[in-house]
Amino acid sequence: MGGGAFILVLAVVLAESAAPAERKCQLNGLWRNDQDSLMEISVLRDNGDFQGQYLTRVTLSGGCAQVSPLRGAQQQLGEEGWPTFAFTVRWDKFSNATTAFVGQCFVDAGGKETLSTMWLLREAVGSLEEDWKATRVGRNVFTRKRTTKEKILPNLSPLCEAVSSPVP
Q1: Distance (Å, whole) CA 74 – CA 36
Q2: Which of 57, 98, 149, 157 is least surrounded, with the fewest CB atoms within 10 Å of its CB?
Q3: φ, ψ dihedrals at 121, nearest 5°
Q4: Is 125 exposed, middle or buried (0-12, 13-18, 19+ CB in 10 A)?
Q5: In this structure, are residues 136 and 167 in contact, taking their beta carbons and an 8 Å threshold?
Q6: Are 114 and 104 in contact (CB under 8 A)?
Q7: What does the pLDDT read at residue 13?
């Protein structure tokens, strides 16, 4: 094997065996989930707190959704580089519901970032007797959406008049 070929093989082996710490996951940016909803994390503080906006594409009633605020926190990055995190979305202006997400960020060998999440959606009900039907559970997988623009979600939100309840 020639010297150039050996170096190429060595580089490929080293790239494939890169430890997670060398493929750190960053939460900030624009993400799309498997339901075509969009999440933009625009502020990520040194202490792990973050905030942003969420635009769901799925609502329980099929009505119109609007950009809603999200706030959360991530574990401080350790050697693994793949943080766990949690955030809530208050379905602002179109629903009386809140969703709490928990998840972890992963990066594959090719550099693709994925957020694997589980969520609980709590919808307001009129009585304790209706409490049994007020909480839903689900799973979403988000992938990074590359864009050069910042804070684009407000431009994507349709004008809404109907009130509906979201599903993340």
Answers
A1: 23
A2: 149
A3: -105, 125
A4: middle
A5: yes
A6: no
A7: 44
Query: 163: pLDDT confidence band, cut at 50, 70 and 90?
Result: very low
What is the average pLDDT score of the chain? Answer: 79
| Cβ–Cβ under 8 Å, residues 129 and 98 | no
Whole-model pTM: value is 0.75
Q: Within 10 A of 59 (CB to CB), how many other CB atoms are there?
A: 20
Short-list 160, 22, 24, CA closest to 93: 160
pLDDT at residue 9 tops 50: no
Q: Which two tokens stand for residue 21?
A: 């710490």
What pLDDT is attached to residue 149?
60
Amino acid at 24: K
**Residue 106 to residues 32, 79, 83, 99: CA-CA distances in angstroms?**
15, 13, 8, 22
Helix or strand (DSSP H, E) at 12: helix 3-16
DSSP E strands in the chain: the ranges are 29-33, 38-44, 49-55, 68-74, 84-90, 97-107, 113-123, 135-144
Q: How far apart are CA 58 and CA 72, in angstroms?
A: 21
